Amino acid sequence: MFPQSAYDIFDPTANITVTWDVISWTPDGYVAVVKMNNYQMYRQITSPGWTLGWTWAKKEVIWSIVGAQATDQGDCKEFPSDIPHSCDKNPRIIDMQPGVPYIQQFQNCCKGGILSSMGQDPADSIAAFQLSVGNSGNTYSTVSPPGNFSLLGPAQGYTCSPVSLVPSSVSLTSGGHRKTRALMTWQLVCTYSQLRASKTPTCCVSMSSFYNSEITPCPSCACGCMNNEACVKTQSTISRIEGDVPMKQCTQHMCPIRVHWHVKKNYNAYWRVRIAITNFGYNVNYTKWTLVAQHPNLNNIAEVNSFIYKPLHVYGSINDTGMFYGVEKLKNDVVLEAGSNGSVYSEMILKKDRNIFTLNDGWAFPRKVYFNGDECIMPLPVSYPSLPNSVIRASNIGQLVIIQVVVAILYQSL
Predict the structure, then answer these.
(1) 45, 54, 205, 405: least buried by Cβ within 10 Å?
(2) Domain range for residue 161?
(3) Cα–chain-centroid distance for residue 318?
């Protein structure tokens, strides 16, 4: 079933916190530093980046802004000589691109709106900008916080709380030897809902194994049906599609992303799994992607090739969920658009716990899979690759080898 709640069982405290620090007064207003901290463990904001919006309480204007920019200047006819950066009653702020002149930069700005997750890259999970606000009052009693905050990231998946007055933020200056405090601080929290972000799921899971020649595909129409979706059968037809219609390959599942879980080998004390992520979209690259999987044997991973793995200790001693992501040096931190290079993969070796390990009843396959924070649609358990009806004897080893070869050939064609 497609998730409908903003609550995430693997990241129950996930949110993006927006902090608005008033740091000095001006003749007709104040200067503020606005920070966005992404406290989500594995959900990032990807290209084309974040957009932060609000509604002014009075007739405020933005005289100037550093580290970001308003998308609309608005109606500034009341200021014929000294024109503000934005007079919009409902400004929408976006990040600057990397490489802008130094004078336009601010700490933690200018990343093209990309905001990494806390679990993947804590240093890159912060965005900030500074703005000078006018027409607002310039005392504690006359200034009012903006309201009706919205956060696009880039889809409309976030819902923001009302603004609250909180204890003033504390910063360290002089090399960490001196504490300074904001004059006043407002704060709000934005939480994500997959259903709000997209009416249909965004990824699905397929499965295969060394002991069964059949491949379990993604469920049909997992992310919509071909008759109701814009898709292209060949890359040559892309140029004939106009507008901003999302373009992806025509598939039976119609998902932009497919995650394939292949049980590759079964050793005496270990077993091996191959994970492949394939992009079926022609106009989207997934930068700094994340993959989350839940499986009882993830508490005993011996080795992960090509990807970085981090366990998610959500419920104390229970360690059955972890996050995977690519490595920049290996150039697999980006899942490129559909085509010959539109996939990344890794293999992992897991140590067996003989008290629980089995290949029966689909135990070797994941319970849940998330891509970029969105839950993927799983096949029905009855369709999982099943073991042969009888125990494999020594005389059947040759047959098993043939099955492995067939599965390998089929898997390479996915």
Answers:
(1) 405
(2) 16-195
(3) 24
Residue 2 lies in a domain: no
pLDDT, tens digit (0-9, with 9 covering 90-100), for 76-131: 999 988 999 999 999 999 999 999 999 999 999 999 999 999 999 999 999 999 99
CB distance 190 to 18 below 8 Å = yes
> Strands across the sheet with 147-152, in order?
68-70, 92-95, 51-55, 147-152
Residues 157 and 256 in one domain: no
3-state secondary structure (DSSP) of residue 403: helix
- Whether 157 and 228 share a structural domain: no
- Give the end of a domain, one of 177, 195, 213: 195
CATH number of the domain within which 271 lies: 2.60.40.290
Structure token digits, residue 380: 């029905």
Give the residue carrying structure tokens 């093209």: 112
Report which of 44, 1, 53 is spatially closest to residue 219, judged by C-alpha positions. 1
Q: What's the pLDDT tens digit per position in 121-175? A: 999 999 999 999 999 989 999 999 999 999 998 889 999 999 999 999 998 876 7
Of 254, 238, 247, the closest CA to residue 203 belongs to 254
Cα separation, 18 vs 93, in Å, equals 13
pTM for the model: 0.86
- Beta partners for 335? 286
Distance between CA atoms of 11 and 40, rounded to whole angstroms? 7
Last residue of a domain, one of 142, 163, 195: 195
Is residue 128 a part of any domain in this protein?
Answer: yes
Q: Is residue 239 part of a domain?
A: yes
- The neighbouring-strand residues paired with 158 are 192
Q: Are 129 and 85 in contact (CB under 8 A)?
A: no
DSSP string, 158-224: EEEPPPEEESPPEEEEGGGTEEEE-SEEEEEEEEE-HHHH-SS--EEEEEEETTEEEEEPPPTTBTB
